[in-house]
Amino acid sequence: MSVPADNSLISAILPEVCYPSVDATAGLAPSPVSEFLADEEAASTCPLLTPSPPTEFEHPLSITPTTGMAYERQISPTSIDELSTLNCNAALGFVGLTATDMPPNEHRSHNSQEGQQEFNPTRSVQSVMESSSSSSSVMQEPTVCAQLLSSHHYQHLTKASDVDPFSCQENGGKPPLTGLQLAVRKSPDDFCFMDWKWPLIRKFSFWSVVSLLVACVCIVITLIANLPTKCNPHHDWWQGTLFYEVFPASFKDDNSDGTGDLRGLGKQTFYLKSLGVQVVRLNSIFQAEHYPENYDQVQNLTEISPVLGNMKDFNFVVNMLHRQNISVVLDLPLSPFIKQLPISEKETEEQIDAAEKNSQFVFMDSPTENETESQLNVEASNRVKSMEAHSDNMVTYAINYWLKNGVDGIYLKGLEYLVYEPEFESLIREWRKVTRSFNKGLDHEKMLMCSMDVLNALDPEDDSRKVEAVLNNMDLIDVRLDIVSNGTQGLKIQVDKVVKGGQFSKPGYPWIHWSMGSIDTKRLSSQLPIANASLAAVLFEMMLPGTPSIFYGDEIGLEELKDPEREREDIGHNHHLPPMHWSAQYPGFGFTQPGILSWLPFSHAWSNVAAGHLTIVQTVSKLREDSPSIYMNGIYKDNVKLPNYEIRTVGRDIMIVERFYPRRNSYLIMINFGSQTQIKDLSSIYYGGEVIADQRGRVGHYLTFHALTLFPGEVIIIKLDK
Question: What is the residue range of 586's domain?
Answer without folding.
Answer: 560-604
